[in-house]
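Thread: Newbie trying to understand structure tokens

Hi all, I'm a second-year student working on a class project, and my supervisor (Dr. K.) asked me to get a predicted structure for one chain before our next meeting. I've only ever worked with sequences, so writing a 3D structure as a token string is new to me. If someone could post the tokens and maybe explain what I'm looking at, I'd be very grateful. Here's the chain:
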Amino acid sequence: MNNVPRRLLQASLLLLLIGSVMTFFLLNRAGDEERETPPAAPVRVVRPVERRMEETVKAYGTVKSANQVTLLPKVSGAVTEMYADVGDIVDEGSLLAVIDREAYEWDLKRAEAAYASVSSTWERVNRLYDAGNVTRQSWEDARAAHAAAEARAAAAGLRYDWTRLVSPVEGAVLVKHVNIGSLVAPEAVTPVFTIGSLEDLELELHLPDSRYPSFVSKVPQARAVVDSIPSLKPHLIIKSVAPWVDPTTRSFTVVCRVVPDAESRALLRPGMFVTVEFILSVKERALTLPDSALTGGRWVWMVDSQGRARRLEVPSPFISGGVVEVPRDWASNRFIIEGQHFLTEGTLLRILDGDKP
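---
Reply by user tm_fold:
Sure, no problem. This is what the structure looks like when written as tokens:
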């Protein structure tokens, strides 16, 4: 009688042990199955769309007057009078400043007096020579002295005229370099005024020599934005392309002329910094993906018919304006734009929100 409960207890323990072993086995098997089948990778996808694409290159430059000159003195002295200031519009020949004239005036008077005296002597000797009363040598000496005195008087007159500084061009006073009392001298290359046209403006731009073929085969279009006034977008025309490449910088120069209009006349000024974008080529209906789809600069991930990842190479990627051109036979496929950077070939995918336009 006492053996029955003991046997029941032993049987219960045996069943419990068998159940524990089976549970452990089933749990391990489920874990192995989970490890063998990794979860699907969440991704976002789009289909290619047609867009207008432009191949462009940017350059940067500073606006300057096409007819800009810096006025330098031709004689030395102190500036005694100023007739122009920054911003003034001046005509060609307008008086801008005067250098102390007194010493040059006295030099001119002495030279003119000497010339008058020598001219009188020359006339007298010439008459005597015609009459045969002086030698040929005396006549030649008098003629040489007359010519030298005439040259000295003319030079003194020039120096006296140079004390009046006049504008060599029509335009606006861009910079006033001196004030009344400033000492100026040709030897010191002391500038007095910088004058330039506000109507005839241009940009000098430097581009890498790799872009040179695009500028000699045809004339690209140019778009400009003034960095300090983003709303100001002056119209540009390419004026010239340098026929050589600077061997030091490996770049060539392109000069663009600003086509004046009401807005540029009112706001655009020499010295402003401008960003210029040259349009080298245009594709009106290129099939494109966002450039965020690219990995490694030339690879994209496509969703295949089984919902798995497949890596494709983009032939000769053309990237512009945030998109990359892809082959036209990819039009019906879906491509991953988020979540592709840790994929491997054949990874099962979970599309988060379907296609995006």
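A couple of things are worth pointing out once you decode it. The chain has five helices and 21 strands. The chain has four domains: 41-51+284-351, 57-66+197-283, 71-100+163-196, 102-162. Feel free to ask follow-ups in this thread.
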